[in-house]
Design brief:
The complex is a heterotrimer. By secondary structure, chain A is mainly α. Chain A has helices spanning 9-31, 40-62, 90-113, 120-139, 143-161, 168-199, 204-208, 215-231, 240-243, 249-258, 260-270, 277-299, 304-324, 328-363, 383-397, 403-419, 425-452, 469-481, 506-525, 534-537, 542-614, 621-640; strands spanning 2-3, 68-77, 80-88. The chains are: A mainly alpha, B mainly alpha, C mainly alpha. Chains in contact: A-B, A-C, B-C. Chains B and C meet through helix 1, helix 2 and helix 3 of B and helix 1, helix 2, helix 3, helix 4 and helix 5 of C.
């Protein structure tokens, strides 16, 4: 057990509160009776509010200070000791703040969004568990705890995606998310094993302190990256994320924009020094491929949530590319800003869906409310949502004066620095990143334009109510957070109160401003020309490809395995079986003749002794007397003679 | 007049015969008679030894108590015997073996 | 051989023979009568051993009390079961072995230890035997005497409860 003395008890209490209150919320929501489930809508956001405030305290305490460390022995297996504890540096504290604040806002929002839902209790319970496990990942001081939190996140996201389990698509999406995550987690586990074998420690600070790079480190880091591709929806395990939009929209905001998918990126940032250059090259290539696929696919979508989902994939890819280009700080800034504006976008989309559902209910019309082709001209009917959407969208698109601009600028700067002056494959990555920012602008503009501008389509006849206040407040807070001041006072230069070591280049800044404006112009020109490419709509048929591959390859494997089974294993098994029967007969004979014989001999002996002794007590009183007298006489002879 | 050993020999004989009666007779009343015989043998011993200290009278008093106990024993024993007769319709002790197993 | 000595050996012989007869005889009723003879002989020995009170008690209680009860018992049981009074013998060998072993053991022990003989106290003791007995019984042995009375009472009640047919008639 060790802890820093420089931190006060108040700090530790706040840390404890921030960590455990979501768990309390989970337990409370589970424990409370169904009859009083309305109480959950008060307690859960309240607990999360305290948690968020505590993490604010933690954040400001850790800022400009030494990291807080606390560890204790967790279990001892053989002579190996596994420790458990927290390691809070600025990075972890910032992430803690993001997770708790967004979780709180989503809780608040969910009161309005999920009102009247049958699984209200379960929903809030799972939100609490999800937040807790995410915090575990964020604060844990070793990878074993991270893995535990990782799996808990996977489980709770499974529960939340499949919240409306009566919908077959939701159940299927939950299953898919879970299975694809498992594939990644298998890699993560293998990585942990490699790590343990070579290093004998899961401690993050120990990992970060490793000097030099070796082969096993590349292998371990790539295995861990495999886990990250599962959780952060990287190529090729990205297809679960768009499907996961079947869950309730606040869940999408929490899980698939701000926290869960961020877990992978966060983990990579946290153990960044552990990654070897070779591994980082792989990471950057995977990242840029993911990013391009996401951006192009977002261009072809019509479902509002799917656009956001693919956009998330694209942004995550960008973060991973930034990590690959050895600028984890830039990746983290983007993670930070993205968490806010993407959560805001999801919640705003949720508001639209919510309002339209209510309207449909009222006017007895029916159309797919998530399909943007059915929407249009909503800026007059839903002004608040429009404003919010515009702000967050601008941030996503990377317009100046928004947080997204600053973070993307940081990433691009990092990339350009990383690529260096020489022409190499790295410049392809840089070009890819620029293409992604361009495409981001285009699909964001297209989405906003189709939803809010133009003429009303199927919504023309209906009267749209604004969302309740509990839903609007989180929206406004998050929209404010997508302005540039969340990062720095200067809208063009990162004053970097989070990561002061970042390089800044005016060239890149000016270039990206121009680039974004060009993209805006192009987007405006092509605003009404919807992309007809099926390949975008189906995200490069990646899903089908995976499925087809799995089907074919797996079937081939199965066929081969069955042939091997019939030709090799079956005869072997039969032979073994015959041999066993033979041995059994021999042993059976042995058993009967010798073992049973001995045992039977013993039993008959015991029976004989028993019948002899029993004859002394057969109810014949006079014989009793005789025997006792006889014994006494013998005793007397013995003593007297 | 006569040696004390002779009294003691008679007591030993009576005691042994009482014991034998208890063992061999197939009748509960006879067994009771055997017990009375054994008690008398002990009484005989007590009275004989009393004469070693004639002032004390302890032996004779013990003999009296033995007689009292013998009376009680005979009364209760006979009552039990009668009840057993009524219940089992037999007087052979071996037949009364319900507590055997 | 004086008269007293003769009487002593006579009583001894009677007691021993009647006891042997008791062991051998098969009729319960004869057995009871032989026991009476044996007890009377023993009472005679008591008289010769200066224990007059015990002798009288012996005659009164055994011959007059217990034997009457036993004879009543014999009559009652034979009346119920309608069986002959003849008693079978069983385990004769075991009985002889135990009794013989016991007798040999006792004789051996008695013969080994030298006892003071009665010849030393040819005269009756200077004290009045019955008077001393009464005084001792009601002074030194007061408490055991009371307990003995209680025992008799309990035996009386127990015997009457056991022997009564009220319970069995009810059921």
């Amino acid at each position: 057990m060790q802890s820093n003395i420089s931190y006060s008890l108040f700090f530790e209490i706040c840390l404890l509160l921030a960590t455990t209150l979501p768990l309390m919320s989970f337990l409370f929501s589970l424990a409370i009776a169904e009859k009083y489930s309305w109480a959950v809508s008060i307690t859960a956001p309240f607990l999360l509010l305290i948690s968020a405030l505590s993490s604010l305290v933690v954040f400001f305490s850790v800022l400009d200070e030494q990291p807080y460390q606390f560890a204790m022995a967790w279990m001892v297996v053989a002579d190996q000791t596994f420790s458990a504890g927290v390691f809070v540096n600025v990075l972890a504290a910032t992430m803690l703040l993001v997770v708790t604040v967004i979780s709180f806002l989503v809780h608040l929002y969910s009161i309005g969004y999920m009102a009247g839902d049958a699984g209200f209790r379960k929903y809030f319970a799972m939100l609490g568990l999800f937040t807790f496990s995410m915090i575990a990942i964020v604060l844990a001081n070793n990878l074993l705890i991270v893995f535990v939190g990782w799996e808990l996140v996977g489980f709770s996201s499974y529960m939340l995606i499949g919240h409306w389990k009566e919908k077959p698509e939701a159940a299927r999406a939950a299953k898919k998310a879970f299975v694809l995550n498992r594939i990644g987690d298998a890699g993560f586990l293998v990585g942990l094993m490699i790590l343990w074998t070579h290093q004998g420690s899961f401690d993050i600070s120990t990992l970060d302190a490793i000097n030099g790079f070796s082969e096993w480190q590349t292998a371990a880091s790539l295995c861990i990256f495999c886990g990250v591709t599962g959780k952060s929806a990287q190529f090729p395990l990205l297809t679960w994320l768009p499907d996961a939009m079947e869950g309730p929209t606040p869940v999408s905001a929490l899980i698939h924009a701000a926290t869960m998918v961020a877990a992978g990126v966060y983990l990579m940032i946290r153990i960044f020094p552990f990654f070897t250059p070779t591994a980082l090259d792989v990471v950057s290539i995977v990242g840029i491929i993911t990013s391009l696929i996401g951006a192009l696919a977002a261009l072809g979508q019509y479902d509002i949530k799917k656009i956001l989902a693919y956009s998330t994939i694209s942004q995550l890819g960008l973060m991973v590319t930034a990590i690959g280009s050895a600028t984890p700080d830039a990746a983290f800034i983007h993670l930070f800003t993205h968490a806010f504006f993407k959560a805001c976008l999801f919640l705003a989309a949720g508001s639209i869906i919510h309002s339209l559902h209510h309207a449909q209910h009222q006017f007895h019309t029916h159309f797919d409310v998530q399909d943007i082709r059915n929407l249009g001209g909503l800026r007059k009917k839903l002004p608040v949502v429009f404003a919010v959407f515009l702000l967050a969208g601008s941030s996503l698109a990377g317009l100046p004066f928004f947080s997204g601009f600053l973070s993307k600028d940081a990433i691009l700067t990092g990339l350009v620095t990383w690529a260096g002056p020489d022409t190499s494959w790295k410049w392809l990555v840089v070009m890819g990143a620029f293409a992604v920012t361009f495409l981001t602008m285009v699909y964001t503009f297209r989405m906003i334009w189709i939803i809010f501008f133009g003429s009303e389509k199927k919504t023309s006849g209906v009267d749209l109510p604004e969302s309740p206040v509990v839903m609007q407040v989180p929206l406004l807070i998050l929209a404010t957070a997508s302005l540039w001041i969340i990062i720095s006072w200067n809208p063009f230069i990162n004053t970097r109160w989070i990561n002061p070591a970042l390089v800044h280049s005016w060239n890149v800044t000016i270039l990206s401003v121009i680039w974004v404006l060009v993209a805006l112009a192009v987007a405006y020109r092509t605003r009404n020309r919807a992309s007809q490419l099926k390949i975008f709509l189906h995200a490069f048929y990646l899903d089908h490809l995976i499925e087809w591959n799995i089907k074919n390859v797996a079937m081939k494997f199965v066929g081969m395995a069955s042939r091997i089974d019939k030709k090799l294993i079956d005869p072997f098994l039969h032979g073994t079986a015959y041999a066993q029967v033979l041995v059994a007969h021999v042993t059976g004979w042995f058993d009967r003749a010798l073992v049973d014989g001995t045992v039977n001999g013993f039993t008959s002996f015991v029976r004989g002794v028993g019948s002899v002794t029993r004859s002394f007590q057969d109810g014949k009183i006079q014989l009793y007397i005789f025997w006792s007298i006889f014994t006494i006489i013998i005793f007397l002879i013995w003593t007297l003679l | 007049m006569f040696p004390i050993e002779h009294v003691l020999f008679l007591a030993a004989l009576l005691f042994s015969l009482g014991l034998m009666i208890i063992i061999i007779k197939r009748n509960t009343i006879m067994i009771l008679l055997g017990i009375e015989l054994m008690l008398n043998a002990s009484n005989l011993n007590l009275v004989a030894f009393n004469n070693l200290m004639p002032e004390k009278m302890d032996g004779q008093i013990f003999a009296l108590f033995v007689i009292i106990v013998a009376v009680s024993e005979a009364a209760v024993g006979l009552a039990i015997v009668l009840q057993v007769y009524q219940y089992y319709q037999t007087s052979i002790p071996d037949s009364v073996s319900d507590l055997k197993e | 051989m004086s008269f007293t000595t003769f009487m002593f050996y006579f009583f001894e012989a009677v007691a021993a023979l009647s006891a042997v007869g008791l062991a051998v005889v098969r009729n319960v009723f004869y057995g009871a009568l032989l026991l009476v003879i044996c007890l009377l002989a023993v009472a005679g020995i008591y008289v010769l051993a200066f224990a007059e009170f015990i002798a009288v008690t012996q005659i009164l209680i055994y011959a007059g009390g217990i034997l009457v009860v036993i004879i009543f018992g014999i009559m009652l049981t034979t009346k119920i079961s309608q069986k002959p009074l003849v008693v079978e013998h069983s385990y004769v060998l075991s009985g002889l072995l135990a009794a013989g072993g016991c007798f040999c053991m006792l004789v051996f022990v008695i013969a080994k230890e030298p006892f003071v003989s009665f010849t030393n106290s040819l005269e009756p003791p200077p004290v009045n035997s019955v008077q001393t007995l009464g005084v001792t019984l009601f002074s030194k042995y007061m408490f055991p005497f009371e307990i003995a009375g209680l025992l008799l009472l309990i035996a009386l009640i127990g015997a009457s409860v056991l022997a009564s047919n009220i319970k069995s008639k009810k059921t």
